Amino acid sequence: MAILDILIHPDPRLKKVAAPVQDVSDDLRRLADDMLQTMYDAPGIGLAAPQVGVMQRLIVVDCVKEDGAAPRPIVMLNPTVTWASDAQSVYEEGCLSIPEQYGEVERPAEVEVRWNDLKMGEHSERFDGLWATCVQHEIDHLNGKLFIDYLKPLRRQMITRKMVKLKRERQRA
């Protein structure tokens, strides 16, 4: 397994819609493993393929945070929200592509998601709390949307300027 480079906003690939996964190859399985390794290493609770420069509808999530609890990594191919609650919740979201920046985002409190696994088997599950927020955040990545797109324009511009500066500093290092 390898730790992948995570794209930092602004990067045009983060604003593009990812293509559906048509079939599962060894390369795609390796990518899913590498994405999980990268997510845990970051550390994060979700990662979408476009964040590592792969324009396919693949996300990985694991929102288990309790000490001693077994991890629950989920690999989702072509995930779609099939139902969303009317009730909303607000979480302070962050993103591995926008390091050390956070903002309060309002989303449906519960969602039902349908996806394929790495054997193209179909799954459907209802998520709430942090899991619901995370899976919606990662699906947004597949549609070229970032959590900062939910923020007020001035705050979004401020965060973007910080990311441009961070990228310049990393290039110099």
Q: Give the CA-CA distance, first to last residue.
A: 26 Å
**The CATH homology group name:** Peptide deformylase
Total of DSSP H or I helical runs spanning 4+ residues: 3
- In round numbers, the mean pLDDT is 96
What is the succession of H and E elements? HEEEEEEEHH
At CATH's second level, what is the architecture?
Answer: Alpha-Beta Complex
In what range is the share of β-strand residues? 25-35%
Q: How many beta strands in the DSSP annotation? A: 7
What is the general shape? globular
User: Unreliable segments (pLDDT under 50, ≥5 consecutive)?
Assistant: none
Strand line-up across the major sheet: 1-2-3-6-7
Summarize the structure.
With 173 residues, the chain is α+β, with helices and mostly antiparallel strands.
Structural features, described:
By secondary structure, the chain is of the alpha+beta class. The protein has one domain: Peptide Deformylase, CATH 3.90.45. It is built from three helices and seven strands; from the N terminus they run αβββββββαα. The strands form two sheets. Strands 1-2-3-6-7 form a five-stranded antiparallel beta sheet, sandwiched between helices. It has a two-stranded antiparallel sheet with strand order 4-5. The mean pLDDT is 96.
Highlighted features:
single chain, 173 residues, alpha+beta, Peptide Deformylase, five-stranded antiparallel sheet, 29% strand
